């Protein structure tokens, strides 16, 4: 294990990313455990931070950690030092705290335990997936695969990969589009398949009552909705079930 870590992480220049990744997951799991204990009103858990009766959301602490870890990381010259690893870990914890309340920041109201709050968990899962791909050595837009070719080949490959990923995102396929930045075939599949109903692409290009709109809605009911229900169950297991109102 130690030999693998030295070869694949430390020697490959991924130590800071590894520390960020581990700290991000640990920070997210801790804060979700904390808020679930507070929600359950467990007596032995400290509870919310409320100086003077004002509830301080953990996104505030996350911003402080990100600033300290980010600026500290920029000030450290040695990438493989313990200080660099610590700064990356602090930045990871701060990022986890911020993204855990992403929906709250987006809506500018406390939607943490509502259905809208599921967005925060989805953003965290996407971040974990993208960081994991980076940690495995994959690079966005397939730049590594074409690095040995001419500049025009590189430019074409990068532009093509970016375009199909953007099309997939416009079609409402967030996971496919973002992961497609690293695995190009996913973006191509997402770009050529039907758009999700309600996506920018569908609103612009699928006329009301058209065959494409009907097919898109049928695919949504048949494939997407069962997948979303499964994702919601996983999210509830990890992060807690939203309140029913």
From TrEMBL:
Residues 208-222 have a biased composition (Basic residues). The keyword Transmembrane applies. It comes from the Bacteria. Keywords: Membrane, Transmembrane, Transmembrane helix. The chain crosses the membrane at residues 15-35, 56-76, 82-107, 119-138, 150-170, 177-195. Residues 208-227 are annotated as: Disordered. This is Integral membrane protein. It comes from Actinomadura spongiicola.
């Amino acid at each position: 294990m130690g030999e693998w870590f030295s070869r694949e992480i430390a020697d490959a220049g991924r130590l800071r990313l590894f520390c960020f990744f581990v700290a991000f997951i640990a920070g997210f799991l801790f804060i979700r455990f904390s808020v679930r204990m507070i929600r359950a009103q467990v007596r032995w858990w400290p509870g919310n931070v409320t100086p003077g009766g004002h509830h301080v959301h953990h996104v505030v602490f996350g911003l402080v950690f990100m600033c300290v870890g980010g600026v500290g990381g920029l000030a450290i010259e040695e990438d493989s030092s313990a200080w660099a690893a610590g700064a990356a870990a602090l930045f990871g914890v701060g990022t986890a705290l911020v993204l855990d309340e992403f929906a709250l920041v987006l809506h500018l109201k406390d939607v943490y335990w509502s259905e809208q709050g599921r967005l925060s968990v989805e953003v965290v899962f996407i971040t974990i997936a993208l960081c994991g791909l980076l940690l495995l050595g994959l690079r966005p837009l397939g730049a590594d695969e074409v690095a040995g070719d001419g500049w025009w080949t590189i430019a074409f490959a990068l532009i093509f990969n970016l375009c199909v990923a953007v099309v997939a995102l416009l079609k409402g396929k967030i996971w496919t589009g973002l992961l497609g930045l690293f695995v190009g075939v996913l973006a191509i599949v997402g770009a050529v398949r039907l758009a999700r109903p309600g996506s920018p692409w569908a609103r612009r290009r699928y006329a009301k009552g058209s065959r494409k709109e009907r097919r898109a809605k049928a695919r949504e009911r048949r494939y997407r909705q069962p997948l979303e229900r499964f994702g919601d169950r996983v999210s509830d297991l990890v992060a807690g079930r939203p309140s029913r109102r």
